[in-house]
Structures are given as C-alpha cells and as structure tokens.
Specification:
Elements lengths: L1 H5 L1 H24 L6 E5 L8 H12 L4 E5 L7 H5 L4 E2 L4 H9 L2 E4 L9 H9 L7 E4 L7 E2 L12 E4 L2 H10 L7 E3 L5 H6 L6 E4 L18 H10 L2 H9 L3 E4 L19 E3 L7 H7 E6 L4 H7 L4 E4 L3 H7 L2 E2 L4 H4 L4 E2 L2 H13 L6 H10 L7 H12 L4
Parallel strand pairs: 1-2, 1-4, 2-3, 4-5, 5-7, 7-8, 9-10, 9-12, 10-11, 12-13, 13-15
Antiparallel strand pairs: 6-14
Helix pairs in contact: 2-5, 2-6
Amino acid sequence: MLNKLRRLPVYLKNAFLLFSLWPVAAVLRRTNRAYRHLWLVMERGFDARDNAYWFFRYLREKQPQINACYVIDDASPDRGRVAQLGRTVPWRSLRHHLMYLAADYLISTHVQPCAPDLVAYYHMRQIGIRPRGRQIFLQHGIIKDKIEGLRYPNLKVDFFASGGKLEYDYLVSESGFPEGVIQYTGLCRFDNLIRGKDPAGEILVMPTWRGSDYPAGDRFTETAFYRQFQSLLNSPRLLRLLEERDLKLIFYPHIELQKELDKFTSPSGRIVLASWRDYDVQTLLMRCNMLITDYSSVFFDVGYMEKPVIYYQFDMEEFRKIHYQEGYFSYEEHGFGPVVRTEDALLDALDECAGNDFRIRQEYRSRLDAFFPVRDALNCERTYRILRRMTGEN
C-alpha cells in the first residue's frame, strides 16, 4: 500500500496525459499516415533483444506493408540495430504517448504492452481506463511457476502467446482468461534460435533473480546467491576442467542482478563476467555448448536447440519463499537435465556432460519432445496470422 501511495503522483500524471492527449491521438489517427493502422512494438523501452524485437524484424522483412514502429530509448545500445530495420520512437516521449493512444495493436514482451509507464498504466487498466489498441502479450520467457499477476483478471490482454504445449495446457486450464486469448504460437525469438550456430566451446551460466526485495548493494555479498556463484567462479576444480577441455565459461546473471555483477571476481581468463550492454543473450545461447542455470526459464530456449542443461538449485526453499511459487513444472519430472544442490555435484555433472561431448541424454530429449511438439522457425508467422484474424483479415 505504501508503494502505491508513493506512486500516486505518477498515476495522476499519466492519467492526465492519457485524457488530455486522447483527442489529439484520435485526430492524428485520421489525418497522419504515421499514426494510421499502427502496430506499436516494445520490450522494456531500453532494449531490443527479445520476442518483440524478433517480431518487429519479421514485420519489417516479411510484412513491410504493416505500419510498424518500435519504442526504444535513444540512449539504448540496441537502438541502432532496430533503426536499421524501420521506424523508431523514443521511449516515454510525447510521440510515444500519442502512438500508445492511437495504435491498433500494442505489442510487447511485458504486461500492459507498450505503456510509457508499465506500473501506472497497469493499475489504470484495472479500473477500466485503457487505450483503444488491442493489447498483445508476447511474453519474455515461458511460464513455469505460479504467478498470480499473470492470471485473469489481474492481467487483462487480448492475446497471450504461449511457447510450449505443457505451458499452454496449464494456462488454458488455470489462468482464467476468456477463450481464445491464449494461443500456442511458440515464442518469436525461437525462430532465430532454431537456425542455430556452431557451438564455440562455451559454458553459459545464467542464473535468475530473486525478487525485488532481495538484498542489494553491500548486503548482496551476504546472500547465498553471491556466496555460491562466487565460490564456483573461483573453484580450482572448475578452472582445471576449463583448461583441460579448452572451454570458456560465460557468467551472465539476470538483468535485474546485473547491477551486482562488479562484485564477482575470478582469477581465470577463461571465465567472462558478461555485462548485458556488451553481450546479446541470443548470441550467447546460440554459441554455448550447454547451460547452467538455477530457475531461469532461459533453459527452455536452450532446450529448443536441443542442448544440455544443468539446474544448480542450492537455495530452492528460500527461492520459493521469497520469489515465485511452484507451478505445473517439476524440474525433476519435466526438466531437460539433472538437478543438483551442491557445487561438487554440479562439477560432477558438468564433467560428465563435457566427457559426453555435450550430447543430450535420451531421457531429457523425450521430455523436450513432449514440451515442444512443434519446433520450427514459423513462430513469428503464426503470431502474425492470428493477429490479422483478430481484425477479420487473412
């Protein structure tokens, strides 16, 4: 409640903008071609590396007749790459607000798609204040946990993309959305993953975050997360394994923990502490031979490419207590690799996987096939066709 009160001035400011700019946007929609039949696309406003970027790229390359525009901060390291594809608008600019109100489609990886302020506009939507455009939720990772904020009516969208069959069945049966909102299309970024690249002798370590209340700053070094991964990055046994097998290890924490990256150290040139500004996640996923994660849904992307995974879950009880609750997905029953709790067990599993030339075991391949009965490069195409049908077009 206190946080909501603190954000009250933001809500009021955005409500004022919404109502004052609404008639202007209506006029622009009728008189200005840049605003007519507009498909507005965005991720978090400062990046372009996820499903929205790949869908925008698909629109510009395969459906150039669509009036599409991408929202991105002028200071973003990704802006130039997006601008090469097509039109952009600065995040939270006046034009962004006007396009948000004028667009036919608001397409994003995050809830309250394309909103200049996700939290403020989310709460306005809950009381019935919403833009005219259809709200398209492309997701930014397959859902496996119980997340109340992604259930209806906590989340209200017109289209909700599902990336896998087990996820789709769970969402349809448990999330409460009206029929037809949830569609099994596959995630747009999978199109690029399936095309693949030759592995580059890299082990990707990509742990997820622990929620907004997790200790930060100086207190972060007291956490189990820091202690366990700092120990791993300095493990003599790990360093020997990397040397003997001529491998690199890329340590890339979740973007919400990237602010703590400078607290980690390693004595080896074979270990890279990777900043999000310098490394593209998709490129890392395509280059890696295998993934080590804890609970990050990025393992679904690696699984889509049929690469091995190890789950290093040293704090499961704490994670469930302070972050996401368990949903339909059991790592032991549905996971694409072994679950380990200790550093020694992790290094045993890593050594075994490397000794097997990073081939995925049949047990885990069968689980992959069950989760992804469709694995192709047509996820953007399926998404586009469904959006066209929403307006009665083929």
